[in-house]
Amino acid sequence: MSPDAVLSVLVTGASRGIGLATARLLAQRGHRVFAGVRRPDAVAALAAELPTVVPLAIDLTEPATYRAAAAEIADRVGPAGLAGLVNNAGYAAPAPLEFLPLDDLRAQLEVNLVGSSGSPRPCSRCCARPAAGSSTSRRSAASWPGR
Ligand SMILES: NC(=O)c1ccc[n+]([C@@H]2O[C@H](COP(=O)([O-])OP(=O)(O)OC[C@H]3O[C@@H](n4cnc5c(N)ncnc54)[C@H](OP(=O)(O)O)[C@@H]3O)[C@@H](O)[C@H]2O)c1
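That is the input. Now the predicted structure with NAP docked in place:
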């Protein structure tokens, strides 16, 4: 693939932090960026700052949102497929495990484990093409409950 090729990439958790910086950098380099964003106000903010980026509502706790996003991406990219997925959305709940309320523990597992494992699946099936697709997940011990 040419270094000048325009690639289609989905970045989740693109409202702020590493996801926003990644979306910004890819857009500045001329790539076609789909940005997964959870909050409606963040969709508007992203569209205002990065008009070439396509914001898509994705909440890792709502599988219908990432299925719909994958379908929209598939429609937009066609046979070329997605070149990459930056599976970045997630959050840290820094607290010793034994003090973390169980509801908080369940909520974080739902996002960081279930959601971040489930959300790439529709994209992989609908969009990635064998020769081109790749994905990366942003995870660390600090993003797991109780660390
Ligand atoms: N920062 C670090 O040092 C570090 C190190 C290793 C790994 N990581 C991991 O890298 C990723 C990004 O880190 P960061 O520091 O940039 O985090 P951040 O600033 O807290 O941003 C997290 C992003 O994930 C989104 N998000 C949270 N819950 C979500 C959900 N249920 N569905 C969809 N999106 C959701 C947030 O959206 P909202 O704005 O709507 O909340 C936000 O866009 C995280 O997964 C983190 O665990 C971070």
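The beta strands are 8-11, 32-37, 54-57, 84-87, 134-137.
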